[in-house]
């Protein structure tokens, strides 16, 4: 079955390459430039359309902004390539970049030209690595968000705990702070859920666990992986009862029901009361809406057993499909990462940390400006993160993002790692661990599942 699947995929890819190659042999075509974006909410779409209009005013090139979630992008990209109708620029994650590159769907000349033009040193090296599987970038890093550990500084101080630096510190603090009235931590535990997949990889990375060894064999049964799963089980035991997902974890911390939270950097505007749909509801928040922001700190990268820093992060990258109007696409990408960059980041700054930190003349220009971009979902309350968090916290968010880690991305195992994440393979095996199964047994089941995915992909 796997061999048949690969044969079908090979035939499909050949058809895709043929049709995409015939799409626009001279790199240009008539009509508006088409930009696919995964930021689909009305307010974020409006901001992106305003940026596109500014580009049109400057260049005369019309832009059609098409909101499209990542899973829809994947399907539409394949069918569009077969029909010879592809977008010109797409905002994509590293796993999409890896899969599309493997299928021959991405132009690689434009990203290389853009990076060279803007200056390789102005981009996060780690973000660049995530989209460089074969020696050259297949997309251009734009921005990203990282999984952070948010913790209650007031509760840590009361318990005499130091800020956590390692996964072991987090597990120990969770158990110390787990009381009858408040959980020690809340994190993703719902079996098979994408948020649990993200949490698991973040925890395993922090534990020094690698997906594959130097030979390319699945390494999830290693002592470090087993140790990380043991700490994950301890944290889950000190978490809010029941299966926890992206919504319930956020709600629990905002309600003051947990002393720590593993979540994305998007949480910072919500802690500060800048997201009306998700307001802080803790008892203290009734009198002081900023209570959680004032009494919370965050750790981005945790220290692994080897002393290295590890933070799970997801970047968004500007890709140019084969068959696009490459001349216009390059101009638009360079505009989005130059004159229009702060507007692009301003769509949701708490979740769009710059992967281009500055310019050749001012290497930190965009990082500094990002800290002052208004965050939040209501025009009446939008405010920069720097107004709600101290300079060290804001600087830490931006600096730790330059060291994002992900399994496989930027290597020959990128497609495997992407498929493993998108299929939530590891999260499907987590249930027994939460019910008391031995971490080594769960690691073995996860490794078996990963090997099955690897066999299909590689």
UniProtKB/TrEMBL annotation:
Keywords carried by this UniProt record: Signal, Sugar transport, Transport
Signal sequence interval, chain numbering: 1-24
Pfam families hit by this protein: SBP_bac_8
Keyword Ion transport belongs to the record: no
Keyword Transport assigned: yes
InterPro entries in alphabetical order: Bact_solute-bd_prot1, SBP
Family, similarity comment: Belongs to the bacterial solute-binding protein 1 family.
Name of the protein in its database record: Multiple sugar transport system substrate-binding protein
Organism (species): Nocardiopsis composta
Biological classification of the source: Bacteria, Bacillati, Actinomycetota, Actinomycetes, Streptosporangiales
